[in-house]
Amino acid sequence: MPTLSSLNAATTVGLVPLVDSVSPVPSVSPNAPGGQSALLSSPSTVVTIPSSFGAVALETYTPQGVLAGAAPAITTANDSRDAVTLQMLGSYTNAQTMTGQFSGVGSALLDRFKTTGSDFSQSVSTTGGIALPTLQGPEGKVHLAIKTQSGVTVDIEIDSEGGSLSASIQSSGKLSDSERSAVAQLATGFQRAIDGLGTVPPKLDLSGLTQFDTSALASVNFQYNVTNDGNANVSASYSQDRASRSLSLKSAEGAIDVSVDTSNPALWGTSAQRAASVASYLQQFDQANSRGHGNAALMSMFEDGFAQMNQDYGTPSAQVLPGTAYAPTLQQASQAMLTGLGDFSASITDATTSPNPLRPGEVNSFSYQVSQSTKLSGSQNDGQITQRQQSHLSASYHQALSGAGEPALTSSRASQNYRYVQIDDSASSTVQIATERGALLNASLSQSSDRKTRESTYEAGKLISDVTTPEETSRSSNLLALLQPLIDSGDATHNSAEWQQALTQVHSMIQLSA
User: Fold this and answer.
1) Angstrom distances, CA of residue 92 to CA of 98, 119, 120, 225, 434
2) Residues 263 and 494: beta-carbon distance below 8 Å
3) Taking CA 243 as the corner, what is the angle to CA 239 and CA 249, rounded to the nearest 5 degrees?
4) Running DSSP on this structure, what letter comes out for residue 365?
5) Residues in contact with 456: Cβ distance below 8 Å, sequence separation at least 6, in sequence order
6) Which residues contact 442 (CB under 8 A, 6 or more apart)?
7) Helix H or strand E segment including 180
8) What is the band of 156 on the pLDDT scale with cuts at 50, 70, 90?
9) 355: buried, middle or exposed (CB in 10 Å: 19+, 13-18, 0-12)?
């Protein structure tokens, strides 16, 4: 066996600079400031010792101590092969995008509550090979906070950051079997909410979070945030408890806000009434978006969120409207003259653009607000009800003179042939009801709309015309006159088909219309 001394007798040791194809290995200076090592940028050297046994393969390590050239390996922080870890490994390995790493992980975390309520923590990352310098990539975070009726809080988090995927469950106390079951029932809805927001363009699917078991759970708070992903950045939050529901979303397309007050079950109509009111509102939203040339994808999310938040408020209580305790017919009539929805406010605002370099003040914009407020007073025997719905649309856009498309505007006056449209619309619908000792004293409906359209026409950059067109409408209806004959004839008491038909007609009349 050759030894180092025998090799020295037969060979000469030479210092040979590293060839260009090999990355320089940093040297360490013992005289670095502050008593710390400093990496020098001078080329490293290697000692070459010829041997009768042939060339010796060199092994190069990165400054992080990782063997250069080694194949990357996917590792986990905890050596476990539970269902959540396996799902994380699969999603992390197969994901084509950052948000793809969340696939299946949310439902796997909540499915875990079917068998255990213990805390959980795991992370997946890639190690090995030479790390190449890269720009900061997309980052994502999902958080679900659940509070049970007994006061226990459960926090579920999923994070994708710095090339790793992590997930955790933390509970403030022990969950009962019914609480664990209620949390596990949110698994599908939680995952669908995550998957929807991760698509391009994002979509809202909150239906599985709005229908949680209120006998076991007190509140749910969902948050989703993606950053460092350019136009794919999105931030969304949804919270719900016994008294309210709230949605907020921001993206490169614009912003959405919806809040619903569910603290007064007396306002809740039948499922058919709620469905009819939601359908009417969705039609109003479509018309506003078409008139104002709004963003179709953002409006789709706005409509989905509004519909899902008003689809089902849970099991109604026995609470009745003021002045309706004397007879079921009064409750029926009063409910028919209201939307059946909880009071709400909702808004959508598109991202503003300025497409005309010669007139940057002419922006493309879209902003729409809609709300309902109800005032109840009196007692069960005598009462007054006032419900007001209102909407407002403010929008502006550019339109080509020929065709309905957008003009291709440049700094050249030859391109400046277009129509600039500005819209300012408002609408309201107000119902007033008064009852006294089992009698319907007053039931009136007042509706109005005010539409203004300004069109400025340019040819070769020169203003040719500037016309503002106002449209105002108003009408009043005596709802008592429609219902009283059926009350007097006994149709209301017998809940006849004619009475039900009249209630349906009244309910359609009170819907907001622009």
Assistant:
1) 9, 22, 18, 18, 62
2) no
3) 25
4) E
5) 419, 420, 421, 422, 463, 465, 466
6) 432, 433, 434, 480
7) helix 177-184
8) very high
9) middle
Model confidence pLDDT, tens digit, residues 257-306 = 999 999 999 999 999 999 999 999 999 999 999 999 999 999 999 999 99
Q: Tokens in use for 423? A: 């819209």
- The alpha carbon of residue 15 and the mean position of all alpha carbons in its chain are separated, in whole angstroms, by 63
The residue among 163, 146, 164, 142 whose CA lies nearest residue 155 is 146
In the block, tokens 């007139």 appear at 359
* Residues facing 476 on adjacent strands: 446
Q: Would you state the structure tokens that stand for residue 268, as one six-digit string?
A: 């809740």
Identity of the amino acid at 441: L
**DSSP β-ladder status, 254-261 and 244-251:** antiparallel
| Span between the terminal Cα atoms of the chain, in Å | 97
- Determine contact, residues 179/200, Cβ cutoff 8 Å: no
Contact 167, 120 (CB under 8 A): yes
Q: Which of 247, 294, 467 is nearest to 394 (CA)?
A: 294
Q: What is the pTM of this model?
A: 0.84
Q: Which stretches within 39-117 are classed as H helix?
A: 83-94, 105-111
